[in-house]
Specification:
By secondary structure, the protein is an alpha+beta fold. It contains nine helices and 16 strands.
Length: about 325
């Protein structure tokens, strides 16, 4: 039996140099779902506004003008302000694979595997703190991957541990990196310094071809490595059930073999992410591949891929619009 269409999503590309009416419209459309998620364990499990503000001021003070502006656009409410800090948010799990292609032109490729109902599906082109950024939005203030006009690209994968701790949701940390850093080395220092509330692997690649992958874990000193591949564990598997469900070890081995055993053209490497074992149709378990992103930071170009379709955006050519994507599932 062949495949059938089970899911459709609309991706939106939106440009707004400074937060304004466009961002406000997005927030109003999504706040109901985000508020329900943020409070689903009860208000007492979330930090106070004062605690959120102190944490931002201590660890990411450069974001405070942006944070204040977004809080104003969100209506100035207490719950919205706490949510937008992404300080000690509820736990959430992703899948994801990412790798740096070792050719002459720097290239960071990633699959974002997540629950479609909890996904912004918005590519933002911004100049929020004076630097141009193209990124896949998450939680309205953060991002799950993106690049800046200094030639730095970043992306994340879940790090494969269940515990949570005192720190920030990683999407706002990635926002901070792209707003304040120029190089992979600077990104590594920032990622090692800022506390995260869950385990994540963040890869940064700059226009000069330098890369870092940082293993971030709550309550533990981050490890900065030169790893070219990250899936959903760190140096060893800690959560075996999650690793089995997401084929984390198998995906890591597949990518390492492609990088080590033979050279291949850049486009072949990118399209390997659109096939198993990297590409996943496990949407019912919250780990389906929603998109593949290929970032070329030296060019300032991002190309988003789906089976049979792609969308190219760059700092020189960022055209607002929408793309409707239909996802098949195996019978």
């Amino acid at each position: 039996m062949g495949a059938e269409t089970a899911l459709e999503l609309t991706f939106t590309a939106m440009a707004e140099d400074e937060p304004g009416t466009k961002w406000q419209g997005l927030f109003e459309a999504r706040w109901g779902a985000y508020r329900a998620w943020y409070l689903h364990q009860g208000i007492d499990d979330r930090p106070t506004y004062g605690a959120c503000l102190r944490a931002l001021r201590k660890h990411m003070p450069e974001l405070l003008p942006l944070y204040d502006r977004l809080c104003d656009l969100a209506g100035g409410g207490d719950i919205a302000a706490r949510f937008l800090s992404l300080y000690r948010p509820p736990a959430y799990l992703t899948g994801c694979s990412q790798a740096v292609w070792p050719g002459e032109e720097p290239l960071l490729v990633r699959n974002y595997d997540y629950a479609p109902g909890a996904f912004d599906a918005v590519i933002l082109g911004t100049r929020w703190l004076g630097r141009r950024v193209i990124a896949m939005s998450d939680c309205m203030i953060g991002l799950v991957d993106g690049m800046n006009d200094a030639g730095l690209a970043v992306s994340l994968t879940f790090g494969g541990r269940r515990e949570t701790g005192d720190g920030f949701g990683v999407p706002i940390i990635l926002r901070y990196v792209l707003e304040t850093c120029d190089t992979a080395e600077q990104a590594g220092r920032a990622l090692a310094r800022i506390p995260t509330h869950m385990a994540y692997n963040v890869t940064a690649l700059d226009a000069g071809g330098q890369r870092v992958t940082v293993y971030m874990t709550p309550g533990t000193k981050a490890r900065v490595t030169n790893a070219s591949v990250a899936t959903n564990h760190q140096e060893r598997v800690e959560w075996s059930r999650h690793a089995r469900l997401t084929a984390s070890v198998e995906r890591e081995r597949f990518l390492l073999q492609r990088l080590m055993l033979h050279e291949e053209p850049q486009d072949h490497f990118v399209h390997a992410f659109l096939r198993p074992p990297l590409y996943s149709l496990a949407f019912d378990r919250g780990f389906g591949t929603l998109y593949t992103a290929a970032y070329r930071p030296a060019r300032g170009e991002a190309v988003y891929h789906w089976p049979g379709a792609e969308w190219s955006l760059s700092f020189d050519r960022f055209t607002e619009g929408e793309r409707r994507v239909a996802y098949p599932v195996a019978a």
